[in-house]
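Input.
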Amino acid sequence: MPNERKSKNNQELSYQIVLSYKVSHNYPIKTFLIECRDKLNECISIIWNNIEYLKEKKPKLPKSNEFKRDLRNKLLEDWDYASHYIDGIIKTAYSILESWSSNYKKGYRTKTKPIVKRLFVRVKTTLIKYDKEKGEVRITIKPRTEYLILNIKNEWFFNKVRDLTIGEIILKENEAFLTFKDNLNYSDREIIVGVDSNLKSLDLFHPIENWIRVDLTELHRIKEVYDKKIDGLKKLLKKCPLRVLRKIKRLLERRRNRVNDFLHKLTTQLSRLFPNAIFVFEDLNKRKMYKNKHHNRRIDRANWNGIIEKISYKTIAILVNPAYTSTTCPICGSKMESQEGQVVYCSNCMNSFNRQLVGCINIFRKGLGKIKKLMGGPGVASTGAEVSLRKLMTPNPNVVYYVDYNGKYLKCL
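Output.
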């Protein structure tokens, strides 16, 4: 995932994009991965046994330098591989327990120790040597004796990552996930686009193009079709469980592949439509939107986080607090009341607006304020911060785009 870094002069903020690619290999490393998994579970157990529970039963993980040093020395006992793998194992263990702790505080997890079953290991950059000319990635398994070499010169992505910096690698039994880092600057961007995420559409506010809608009905339809097929098969589980489970697994894989294909095309075409833009999204939490069975199913079909994750690989995307974005009047700032359909009414300035338009405008303004705060003011495009009443009174978007499965850009019908 992308992250943000300030430059030395504090005048511009660099945005780091992490690109990930999968490469197959046939090295016999199953024994090595099993030992890494066992060490990871041992590390989790040691940290778990030293967790302190403060007031209101909030867990506090042990993070003192002395504890981490003793933990590292303990895990290095009977370890025949490079010691830097232990550092990656400790980092992974803390990441797993931090996630558990965060969910436990929210009531989403019980006091049950996480157990890792999958075979994988994180490879630190200190164990990687990347030859950009030959296109070879050498991974140290045992220092000066055992290496794993991946040749990516003939891979489809090599030209994209030739001059980039290689990051950590996730190593599995028959494949490896390579990461490469690329930097972008906020000051290079000319415009800010606010994005209001809805169940079947993305509503965008562009300072020049104004209100734009990207239709996501096809994504919702794909999920709905496969959900109905899977629900029908679940009724036959008692009669022939093994056969039905195989079919359900196959359908879930097809569903996942079609959804990922749609999301990749959507985010690629959207980033090409506005190549010099910073996209501002809401930081939404689906759990807070659950109401009843049918509504929950519709919410689960939305792929807001998937869209943000994939577009972050291709351009700059930031998140803002979604609170009151659809109910704050864009003219006077007072709280508005909902009317029938998508209309909201401001009793202070006596105006009615479309909810989606108000949402994307307020998201745009929040993003503008956040970027100005990060950059200290200079170099930020502020076009569109002041929106005319005529633009706010429009009942429909200026243009509606659809994903083009066979093209490079979003199509407009």
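The longest strand covers residues 13-24.
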